[in-house]
Amino acid sequence: MKPEEIQTILVVGAGTMGQQIALQCAMHNFTVRLYDVKAAALVTAQSRIETYAQDIVAQGLSTSERMQAALARISAINDPAEAAAGVDLLSESIPENPTLKGKVFAQFNRLCPSETIFTTNTSSLIPSMIAPTTGRPERFVAMHFHTTVWISNVMDIMPHPGTAPEVVEILEGFGHRIGQIPIVLKKENHGYVFNAMLNALNGAAITLAANGIAAPHDIDRAWMGVMKMPLGPMGILDGVGLDTAWEITDYWAGVTRDPQLQANADYLKRHFVEQGKLGVKSGQGFYAYPNPAFSNPDFLPKA
Ligand SMILES: NC(=O)c1ccc[n+]([C@@H]2O[C@H](COP(=O)([O-])OP(=O)(O)OC[C@H]3O[C@@H](n4cnc5c(N)ncnc54)[C@H](O)[C@@H]3O)[C@@H](O)[C@H]2O)c1
């Protein structure tokens, strides 16, 4: 397969990331199929994608004509066989659970053409953990995006030892074609490059909150006030989704048996996930949306 032969993208999982990846690919002239196991998630995704599209046009990053054409290139499909037919590249964004991801890749291995490249957008796993279940390990790689995809436009490409080198080259070309800065990792690493740095910050912030050292808004004020950043770790976590943050923290607490990580996972679960406070996507997390307190000038008075 040549890089230019990639034309049709299947995005599996229509949540926070699947919506953004689908729109980014469509804005760069690719045909996109957006699949989710839940029909209701596809309905929500279509409305969120339209809101993103309006914001992008309002920010002057595209015109309404180009955006209408992009939206017309996205089909939301609830039937896996129909979604998989003839696709060149699969980008998976389902929950951060290696067993579930493995099952879904095995399912799509039976449905997609044999040359389709399979990619995972996992945040914290490594592709060699999932590769054997994909049925096509040489055509499987992690291709990881950062939210918000058209603004934070860095895309990690992380092969596992069995990935064919030509697949990495094709995806590097693909990254450029969808307006991303591709970063090719030389070795597998949990958290890639940027997330390896960010996770350390976010983990320290959750530890401070879970241990009652400081209030979440003050933890953000400390980071924002010193670093002169527009948002702090709690605001970032709201954007990631507190359910996703909990899943990742809980998974690693189980793997490492680190009691502080488990306390952090339990804090996220008890105070946020169990109460439906999932961050930006539910309208409430550490902050209330759409007008979070950290964007108010009073949040961080100037010196
Ligand atoms: N949220 C972020 O900022 C971010 C950034 C980069 C990577 N990631 C990673 O991307 C992945 C998805 O995260 P998200 O935040 O978009 O999650 P999300 O919870 O917002 O969306 C997940 C979607 O997957 C769907 N799903 C569940 N089981 C499925 C199945 N069997 N088949 C098809 N669809 C299924 C769900 O219905 C849901 O719509 C995770 O691995 C996460 O670690 C997240």
Give the gist of this structure.
It contains eleven helices and eight strands.
Tally of structural domains: 2
Give unreliable regions as ranges.
none
Average pLDDT value? 97
Q: Sheet bearing the most strands, described?
A: 8 strands, mixed
Named CATH architecture of the largest domain: 3-Layer(aba) Sandwich
Radius of gyration: 19 Å
* Secondary-structure-derived class: alpha/beta
Give the distinct bound molecules. Answer: nicotinamide-adenine-dinucleotide
CATH first level of the largest domain = Alpha Beta
Topology:
Blueprint: E1 8-12, H1 16-27, E2 31-35, H2 39-58, H3 64-72, E3 74-77, H4 80-84, E4 89-92, H5 98-111, E5 117-120, E6 140-144, E7 154-158, H6 165-177, E8 181-184, H7 194-210, H8 216-227, H9 233-240, H10 242-256, H11 259-271
Parallel strand pairs: 1-2, 1-4, 2-3, 4-5, 5-6, 7-8
Antiparallel strand pairs: 6-7
Helix pairs in contact: 1-2, 7-9, 7-11, 10-11
The protein binds nicotinamide-adenine-dinucleotide.
